[in-house]
Amino acid sequence: MINWWRGIYIILLVLLSVNKSYGVDPQFSQFYSNSLYLAPSFAGVNHENRISLNARKQWPQIPNGFTTYSFSYDRNFDNLNSGLGFLILNDYAGSGQLGSLNIGVLYSYDFRLSEKWHVRPGVHFLYTERRLQYDKLIWHDQITQDGITNSGGFENSLNHVGDIDFNTSVLTYSDQFWFGLTIDHLLKPNHSLYEHEGSDDNLGHLPVKYSFFGGTKFILKQELLRPTPTSMQIAYLFRKQDQFKQLDFGIYYYRKPLVLGFWYRGIPVVKPAYTSDSFVFLLGYKMNQLSLGYSYDFTVSRLITSTGGSHEISMTYSFTTKIKKKKGKMVPCPEF
User: Fold this and answer.
1) Which CATH architecture best describes the domain 4-319?
2) Which H or E run includes 202?
3) Is the Cβ–Cβ distance between 215 and 38 less than 8 Å?
4) Residue 63 burial (C-beta neighbours within 10 Å; 0-12, 13-18, 19+)
5) % of the chain with per-residue pLDDT over 70
6) Domain ranges of the chain
């Protein structure tokens, strides 16, 4: 028996890939644990070598829901005031594994404006690929009284398409505050899986995305016998991509070794229903060089009974390869 809801879901995904794209990039609730994906300015910002792994399962109650993985490595070069990083992101959904793959190199440079403030611009060059496994899909002309038959699928269609892209960002920070801006997809890469005779006919270019982020850090308690103070951080992230707008606003509480976080995702003053998305709860462990995090997105939109929320895990490991004579200025933003 054919699952018609799954069929409708797949068709919607395919239509997004062959017509004008109103979709958005993959997202992470723990966006600071995947800071290179947030902004290339974070490359090398922790003045050490850093490895980050992130995995997100979105809407698990929907068959073959959205799944996203990322891996990144970055390193700081003190003598050059620079950071260099490498990022891989893989995202897919649906029975046809409609997804994207990004592989890129990032670079950042740190300018000292004053005793308290630094500015860190960054760039990100990447290869991006969109793909779909047509052999796993069932088309309408395959459904007959005798069962499932062979089908040609879409004519003039591709199972994958690749392009190059460029992102840039700037980060301003002090010991207590940080602010940043990222502009993604400046080259508007092609994500359409349909062959076009001319570039003017192709409506599948990925739209430019703007991300504004920032926050502040408060020291709540600091004891002589407890070198790591208890702290609280307030942070936000606002994103705009084509017609889509989203605001994440939340708070972190850190008392070594545990981190508790609470977020709201949505724009409550705007009337359309899709601007109110979810609440996010975070539990993290942070000790010395290792940070582990788990978060759950509790859906509050019209999809509250249909998705099962979202699960996300993160791991970050920082290490040094040599003894540093001096420690650079650290960005006070969270690690989850």
Assistant:
1) Beta Barrel (2.40)
2) none
3) no
4) middle
5) 77
6) 4-319
* Angstrom distances, CA of residue 73 to CA of 14, 46, 102, 108, 210: 33, 12, 14, 14, 24
CA atoms within 13 A on the CB side of 42: 28
Burial class (CB in 10 A: 0-12, 13-18, 19+), 283: middle
Q: pLDDT tens, 117-138? A: 999 999 999 999 998 877 777 7
Mean pLDDT rounded to a whole number for the chain:
83
48 backbone φψ class: left, alpha, beta (φ>0; ψ -120 to 50): beta
Distance, in Å, from the CA atom of 157 to the CA atom of 17, rounded to the nearest integer, reads: 10
Q: Give 2's contacts (C-beta < 8 A, 6+ positions apart).
A: 138, 143
Report the distance separating Cα 181 and Cα 184, nearest Å: 10
Cβ-contact 92, 98 below 8 angstroms: yes
pLDDT tens readout for residues 57-101 = 988 887 778 899 999 999 999 899 999 999 999 998 877 778 899
What is the C-alpha to C-alpha distance for residues 263 and 297, in angstroms, rounded to an integer? Answer: 9
Give the rounded percent of residues in the chain with a pLDDT score beyond 90: 51
Distance CA 23, CA 241 (A): 9
Residues 251-306 have pLDDT tens digits of 999 998 999 999 999 876 655 544 557 899 999 999 889 999 999 999 887 666 67
Look up the pTM and report it. 0.85
Q: Is residue 142 helix, strand or coil?
A: helix
Say how far apart CA 87 and CA 83 lie, in whole Å.
13
**H-type alpha helices, the chain:** 4-18, 35-38
Q: Compute the average pLDDT of residues 196-225.
A: 81
Cβ–Cβ under 8 Å, residues 97 and 131: yes
- What backbone phi and psi angles, to 5 degrees, belong to 103? -135, 120
Say which DSSP state 18 is in.
Answer: H
Beta-strand relationship, 160-173 and 49-58: unpaired
Token pair listed for 210 = 């703007």
